[in-house]
Structure prediction request, 329 residues.
Amino acid sequence: MSTKPTVLVTGADGFIGSHLTELLLNEGYHVRALCLYNSFGSLGWLEGVSHPELETISGDVRDPDLCRQISDGCEIIFHLAALIAIPYSYVAPDSYVDTNIRGTLNMLQGARANKSLKRIIITSTSEVYGTALTVPIAETHPRQPQSPYSATKIGADALALSFHAAFDLPVVIARPFNTFGPRQSARAIIPTIITQIASGATEIKVGDLTPTRDFNYVEDTARGFLAIARANDVEGQEINIATGSEVTMAKTLDTIATLMGKEVSWVTDPARLRPSKSEVRRLLGDSSKLRELTGWAPKYSLEDGLRKTIEWFTEPANLARYKADIYNR
Ligand SMILES: NC(=O)c1ccc[n+]([C@@H]2O[C@H](COP(=O)([O-])OP(=O)(O)OC[C@H]3O[C@@H](n4cnc5c(N)ncnc54)[C@H](O)[C@@H]3O)[C@@H](O)[C@H]2O)c1
Prediction:
């Protein structure tokens, strides 16, 4: 039995969740890590990670009884498990409702039954804002559900806030803007570009390069979660994690090619375009709330983060885990 405070991370097998798990272990917590059950016994990005304070559990947030069991005894819950690909949400919206809305409800119910709970952090996304109506986007910006993914996250956020209002559950909503770094799935723009270039392609398949994004390096996002977990008197609040700078996809891709020292051309792959009304054209976040409450600030510039990301993806053992030649929605 560990003497360290126990925290639960759902989605710990994923990109951000695995980095957050490592940060929490380094910070001296006992981490209970929920990895999505599968018949291969895979723990995703926690596969092969061994630490005396890491407790892995295979399961599914669609299972209410499991959510109650894994919450028990945890002081802090970081709920990151979700279906997150926007293109796949066009074809499988039902599963997004089940995992993102019902799964969040199950975690909230589990948290309510947990007498040790100090805080539950629900993971939202900048996609809930849709194309910026005003910039920088503060937490008060209107919600615009431009994809089924975004709609399910808006629903999950609303449930979480209702549990704070109705039951005084110590809920905080963390809202990361676009995050990138080692281990990200190739459905996202930065990994798909790096893996195509690293695999020797010179004609790089892309979607729309005109939208802008506010890119967080994953270590900064993970530190943002931790800062939110430790902040005083933030229950019932929504808090952006954003750098406060924006860049077009085109500029991001040029920077990647330059950093990789390759001359490439871009070709539009229609499969990678979102329906026009669904494309979020501009995301530029206001993180002054997080900065003022916690002193958080990003440590990585976009270029520094890209350098670390390229370094990781171009390791042959890492690159071998990706299928650069297919569109992984
Ligand atoms: N990556 C980004 O740019 C970004 C930006 C904003 C918000 N987010 C949010 O951050 C969180 C983590 O995203 P990520 O980028 O690490 O994606 P990811 O797909 O790598 O991680 C999500 C994890 O959830 C797990 N999961 C899915 N369905 C589950 C279920 N039914 N039960 C249990 N686990 C399940 C998956 O196995 C996966 O490992 C998500 O909530 C996402 O909406 C991500």
The first strand starts at residue 6 and ends at 10. The pocket of nicotinamide-adenine-dinucleotide is lined by residues 10-11, 13-17, 34, 36, 44, 60-62, 80-84, 99, 103, 123, 125, 176, 178-179, 185 (CB under 6 Å). Residues 182-213+247-282+301-319 form a domain with the UDP-galactose 4-epimerase; domain 1 fold (CATH 3.90.25.10).
